[in-house]
Amino acid sequence: MSGSSGTAAVVEATPVDSGPGAGDWAAAESLLRNLSPDARVLLICHVNPDGDALGSMLGFALGLRRLGVRAMQATFPGPPEVPVPFQGLPGLELLVPATEAYPDPDLVICFDAASESRLGELVDRLDTAGASLVLDHHASNTRFGGVNLVDPHAAATSVVAEQLLTRLGVGLDAGIAECLYVALTTDTGSFRFEATTPAVHHLAARLLATGIRPGDISRRVFDTRPFGAVRLFGEVLGRARLEPAPAGGRGLVWTWATLDDLARHDQRPYVLEALIDSVRCTAEADVSCVLKQTAPGEWAVSLRSKGAVDVSRVALALGGGGHRFAAGFTGRGTAEEVVDRIRGQLDDAVIPPAAP
Ligand code: AMP
Ligand code: MN
Ligand code: MN
């Protein structure tokens, strides 16, 4: 023991927001290295999957295949519809509808889900599986797995997935890299958000070195939408409302899209995911919000902040979750009623200025 001062040993508390410890990595590695040759592995990502959910899951699945895992399924709760921007992802052949997922896998691995509720009807697999492993980067993650690799400082779940693959000795190939690249670019807003650290760019460089084509990938994932969606966006953005008072005067901008809007323009719900990126540009508001109707009286709500408000607090208070500056929840009632509840939470969610 070094530095013997004669006083009692200081036990350092692990900060609640620290990443996985050595024991967590070792436990995860041991789960995967000790799989029997005929083990059935079920990979699940969160409901209404985004680029990080699908990309980290499929990239990791392709890595497991290289490791020799043969019986493997990838899935997510709800209708088995992959948003068009992600329909070119490698590994999609591993996807099965939730209704066909192994009822009692030997191992279940969850991706980008902060809590069990994000697994929808597949949540029972946490009990029926022989073992469970969680890979995620939400600070609010409830550590619902048997083994949890949760790094709130990671820009995307794909960062955690790549670290685990490296520890398992699985190198990157173009298929794995494309999946992880899509995950990394979607969650960092194409390397624009605060979480874009030097390590993120180092990872991007290693992914690109496999020969994947960033121009083609970005055009497919971010820059392509049907003409009907362009017109739908025009309508929905045209009805946006700007309110200067909420969030202690930092301002709120919001809009909504109904099922009828989608039907009139003959569009699928996934096209609405990109809407928040146009709304959050509004210079006069720190907080932006899009309500996407999912059923009569039910809305998938997206919240964003430019940095003055912790919108994950708002989302958590209203039954959802997310990150400090990007969060969401399911809202019930009319759009106006849901926004009223958001207004009611915003003042408390303003981030206090750092002490001088
Ligand atoms: P979105 O606005 O759908 O892009 O989601 C932004 C963030 O909020 C993501 O990190 C999601 O994980 C989280 N999120 C969105 N909707 C919900 C929900 N209903 N429950 C918990 N977290 C959510
Ligand atoms: Mn996600
Ligand atoms: Mn994510």
TrEMBL record:
<dbReference type="Pfam" id="PF01368">
    <property type="entry name" value="DHH"/>
</dbReference>
<dbReference type="InterPro" id="IPR003156">
    <property type="entry name" value="DHHA1_dom"/>
</dbReference>
<dbReference type="InterPro" id="IPR038763">
    <property type="entry name" value="DHH_sf"/>
</dbReference>
<dbReference type="Pfam" id="PF02272">
    <property type="entry name" value="DHHA1"/>
</dbReference>
<feature type="domain" description="DHHA1">
    <location>
        <begin position="269"/>
        <end position="348"/>
    </location>
</feature>
<dbReference type="InterPro" id="IPR001667">
    <property type="entry name" value="DDH_dom"/>
</dbReference>
<feature type="domain" description="DDH">
    <location>
        <begin position="40"/>
        <end position="183"/>
    </location>
</feature>
<dbReference type="GO" id="GO:0003676">
    <property type="term" value="F:nucleic acid binding"/>
</dbReference>
<protein>
    <submittedName>
        <fullName>Phosphoesterase RecJ domain-containing protein</fullName>
    </submittedName>
</protein>
<dbReference type="InterPro" id="IPR051319">
    <property type="entry name" value="Oligoribo/pAp-PDE_c-di-AMP_PDE"/>
</dbReference>
<feature type="region of interest" description="Disordered">
    <location>
        <begin position="1"/>
        <end position="21"/>
    </location>
</feature>
